[in-house]
Design a protein that fits this description.
Layout: H1 7-14, H2 16-24, H3 27-53, H4 57-66, H5 69-79, H6 81-110, H7 113-121, H8 125-128, H9 133-167, H10 169-175, H11 177-186, H12 188-227, H13 233-244, H14 251-254, E1 256-257, E2 264-265, H15 270-280, E3 284-289, E4 291-300, E5 326-328, H16 333-343, E6 347-351, E7 357-362, H17 363-371, E8 386-388, E9 393-397, H18 402-409, H19 425-433, E10 442-445, E11 448-455, E12 460-466, H20 469-472
Helix pairs in contact: 3-6, 3-9, 3-10, 4-5, 5-11, 6-9, 6-12, 7-9, 9-10, 12-13
């Protein structure tokens, strides 16, 4: 009778390839596999951060209507965004630290220790004379680890997954809903501490902001008490208050918008240039090519004095000075004034965050923030266009800067500072409503009422503002 093979021997033959595979795993192989797994975890966590915080209100509404378990988990995680962000940051840091540690182990096993000593001995003399070969070898090993780990983390753990998550945010949010719920429970104590301390830090900053505002209010009151008994005190009070707030005003708040800037196309005929010069009365005029975003230089009118009798073919563009000063919208005007003084310039082109030309600011604009309107023989009409209906009602152009509006109606220039992205009256209305309103629409902000008097498809043209009785009392 043939002998029957024991079942254990058959199982051994069946699982022999798996056993051999496991037996072949060395510490290096396991480390490489773990690094790849951790990189995948880092990518998923980083992608989840972008996915969850890029969900729009419309996306959240769709998820709420789905009613699935994953949708409910996504909405639950979004209910407390601070706790979600803390969970993501803590998880990502643990994963990244593990990747760096394993990368160091892999580098140690790939390269023989004598390799680093050999590289260290080949270093320049000024290094080998000041450091031992062992310390240089450790520095080389550390540098390789950091560079390698950083490259892997930035490319595969940050950039690539975030690009994918930005495009497929709902899909990524669904994939990570269950893992994030688990991580939120796992790291809850640490996340709670992080959120608590960040909230306290934020409250402290908010208190400092309120305290600084109160100091300015106290200083304003002190100025009024000190100067109010003198003759013509109103002008002095305004100047002193403007000096106090001078460092808080940005260029965007005082600049002339590009739609109101007088500029000359560099391809214009000489007679057109002279016409613009005579009508504007300005001593310096920007010169552009094609559009105002492409400024070629500044034309100084005094340079034209020797060429008044030239014909239309005169090459006036040779007189354009190419030195143009550019300043960002967010620059504070006290810094700009210092730059104007140091560089002996009087004009700058204001650029927005995308590099486009947003408008123009001059030394006169800066000085007017302190001493009020500066008028000369060329100022035939006031710059702020408005109509005073009675003591409490005014009609302003939509482009009127809020600072100018406040001065005209006699209120503090920081009255509308709560609407941070608004610098003009039209901008204030747009920020409050979120769209271009229809004619005769009325809105209220604090104690002030605004009525849209004229509007086009692209801009708010005229706005009526009604003041509360207390302002003029």
């Amino acid at each position: 009778m043939d002998s029957i093979e024991p079942p254990s021997k058959g199982l051994l033959i069946l699982f022999a390839p798996f056993v051999l595979l496991v037996a072949s795993f060395t510490g290096l192989t396991l480390s490489v596999i773990l690094v790849l797994l951790l990189l995948a975890c880092s990518a998923l966590i980083s992608g989840a951060e972008v996915a969850y915080f890029s969900l729009s209100p419309a996306d959240l509404h769709l998820l709420a209507n789905e009613g699935s378990l994953k949708s409910k988990r996504i909405l639950h995680l979004r209910e407390n965004p601070r706790m979600l962000l803390a969970t993501i940051l803590i998880s990502n840091n643990f994963v990244n630290i593990a990747i760096v540690i394993l990368s160091d182990f892999i580098i140690r096993n790939i390269f023989h220790p004598d390799t680093f000593l050999h590289w260290a001995s080949a270093m320049p003399g000024f290094l080998t004379s000041n450091f031992t070969e062992d310390s240089l070898a450790r520095a080389i090993e550390f540098t390789l680890t950091i560079v390698g780990a950083t490259f892997l983390l930035v490319l595969f753990g940050e950039v690539a997954p975030k690009i994918y998550a930005n495009i497929n945010n709902k899909q990524m949010a669904r994939i990570m809903a269950s893992p994030l719920m688990f991580l939120k429970t796992l790291f809850f104590p640490m996340s709670k501490i992080l959120v608590t301390w960040s909230s306290r830090f934020e409250d402290r900053l908010a208190q400092d902001t309120v305290r600084n505002k109160n100091r300015k209010d106290d200083l304003d009151k002190a100025i009024e008490l000190t100067v109010s008994h003198e003759l013509n005190s109103e002008k002095e009070i305004d100047i002193l208050k403007s000096i106090v707030k001078f460092g808080d005003v940005s260029v965007k708040q005082i600049m002339r918008s590009r739609v109101d800037v007088v500029a000359i196309d560099i391809n214009s005929q000489f007679n057109e240039v002279m016409k613009i010069v005579k009508e504007s009365g300005y001593s310096r005029i920007p010169v552009y090519e094609e559009d105002f975003d492409n400024i070629k230089g500044i034309l100084y009118v005094k340079d034209l004095l020797l060429h008044l009798n030239e014909d239309d073919k005169f090459g006036w563009n040779k007189l354009v000075r190419p030195e143009v000063k550019y300043v960002p919208e967010a620059k504070k005007i006290n810094e700009l004034l210092t730059e104007f003084q140091q560089e002996r310039t009087h004009m700058a082109i204001v650029v927005d965050e995308f590099g486009g030309s947003g408008g123009l600011v001059t030394l006169e604009d800066v000085m007017e923030e302190v001493i009020g309107d500066i008028r000369d023989e060329f100022d035939e009409e006031i710059e702020v266009e408005y109509e005073k209906i009675d003591e409490f009602n005014y009609v302003f152009e939509g482009k009127t800067l809020l600072n100018d509006l406040c001065r005209v109606i006699g209120i503090s220039t920081d009255t509308f500072e709560d609407v941070k992205d608004a610098d003009s009256l039209a901008g204030l209305i747009l920020e409050l409503m979120g769209r271009i309103p229809r004619k005769n629409i009325e809105i209220k902000f604090k104690e002030y009422r605004f009525k849209i008097m004229a509007v086009s498809a692209k801009r708010i043209e005229k706005v009526k503002i009604t003041l509360p009785n207390e302002v003029k009392s």
